[in-house]
Amino acid sequence: MDRDMTEPTDANPDDDMALTLLRSARESALSAYAPYSRFRVGAVVLADDGTTFSGVNVENAAYGSTICAEASAIAAAAAAGIRSIPTVAIGGLDAAECYPCGNCRQLMREFGVEHVLVQDGLGGVREHTLDDLLPHSFGPESLG
């Protein structure tokens, strides 16, 4: 479902929600801890009940210990008892595109993410389904 959206003019509520979530993700990025890459990323997850949880990337001198913004937001939702997250929005502080890494894509799969909203190179929104970003994936139902 690869769909581009820009600032709302006659956007429908779904487009408005996507833009609101992405703006929240960018605002979250202001709190990111990225002293090494200086690439601050924020993420917001939208739970089934409409609750949102935000997260930021947290870098570490031992690079493998770095936490992505998406994983941080999903962990916050999981800590609150959320087990179904239909939408994740990812945004950074500059115009660079912010796509989830492979680990985060698999984590999103675990929590049933269907829609992934990413900041495009112009500061707008690009919407994908997780199936677009992680084709032929496996999840918890595959193991039992």
Structural class: alpha+beta
How many distinct domains?
A: 1
Q: Tell me the distance between the termini.
A: 29 Å
> Portion of residues in helices?
25-40%
Outline the structure in words.
This protein is α+β, with helices and mostly antiparallel strands and 144 residues long. The chain has a single domain, classed as Cytidine Deaminase, domain 2 (3-Layer(aba) Sandwich), CATH 3.40.140.10. The protein is built from 4 helices and 6 strands. The protein has a 6-stranded mixed sheet with strand order 1-6-5-4-2-3, sandwiched between helices. The longest helix has 17 residues, at 13-29. Mean pLDDT is 88; it is low at 1-13.
Short description:
The chain is α+β, with helices and mostly antiparallel strands and about 140 residues long. The protein contains 4 helices and 6 strands.
Topology, element by element:
Layout: E1 3-5, H1 13-29, E2 41-46, E3 52-56, H2 69-79, E4 87-92, H3 102-110, E5 115-119, E6 125-129, H4 130-133
List keywords for this structure.
Cytidine Deaminase, domain 2, alpha+beta, 6-stranded mixed β-sheet, globular, disordered N terminus, 144 residues
